[in-house]
Amino acid sequence: MERPSKADLAARIEHTHLQPHTTRSRIDALIAEALAYGFRGVCVPPWYVGYAAQQVPPSANLRIISVVGFPTGYHPTAVKVAEAEQLIAAGAQELDMVMNNAAFHSGDLTAAQEDIAAVVAACHQQGIPCKVIIETGLLDTLENIAAAAHLAAEAGADYVKTSTGFFGRGATVEDVRTIRRAIPAHVKIKASGGIRTAEQALQLIEAGADVLGASRGVEIIKAIRQTP
User: How many CB atoms sit inside 10 A of residue 126's CB?
Assistant: First the structure.
């Protein structure tokens, strides 16, 4: 696989800031950086979705992305569905939901899958893609990662996303390869969590990641020396 150019790499990055102490000025900076560097989108805390949607020019090719059931995923399904619906109404164009980790780790795969399917349905009813975070850092084996990825795909996920970045390790090349083998070709992969260098970003894409969630997108792009 040929390595992406600087512009192509930027177009795969979802510029992210989800810390609980995120300020409005940081959201302003996030959007300005995303527009300047040609990032795919900005991933912002739910409270800032409406504000971010107002700040992005209608002509800009910049997606407003937010999170559902973040970061634990063990919220009641009805709460997650309501959150998704409210975020879409506020201007979210894509949503990253956290699967019910408690259900999955308890072996209640039916509950975990139904939870995902309900949020996916709420998104798809409004034409919104839904990514499902399986939190690879909490899954002990590659077999569990594959099982969670397969479950998410079966529930209708548009993307399987590696992690929130809040628990355990972040995305690894082996995680992405494992997910890619476990899901159909039409389901995409978002690698996120701990992506700090350009080389790491490129390795994750080579392993099969379609998009990257990163808070260090600017540093990553600045480190790429090839021409756009």
Answer: 13
Q: DSSP assignment, residue 47?
A: G
Task: List pLDDT tens digits, range 10-61.
Answer: 999 999 999 999 999 999 999 999 999 999 999 999 999 999 999 999 889 9
The residue extents of the domains of the chain are: 6-222
Cα separation of 52 and 166, whole Å? 23
Q: Amino acid letter at 90?
A: A
Q: Which residues are catalytic?
A: 96, 161, 190
CATH class assigned to 6-222: alpha beta
**228: which residues sit within 8 A by CB, 6+ positions away?**
5, 6, 7
Kind and range of the H or E run holding 202: helix 198-207
Q: How far is it, in rounded angstroms, from Cα 61 to Cα 179? A: 28
Separation of alpha carbons 153 and 184, rounded Å: 8
Q: Does the pTM of the predicted model rise above 0.90? A: yes
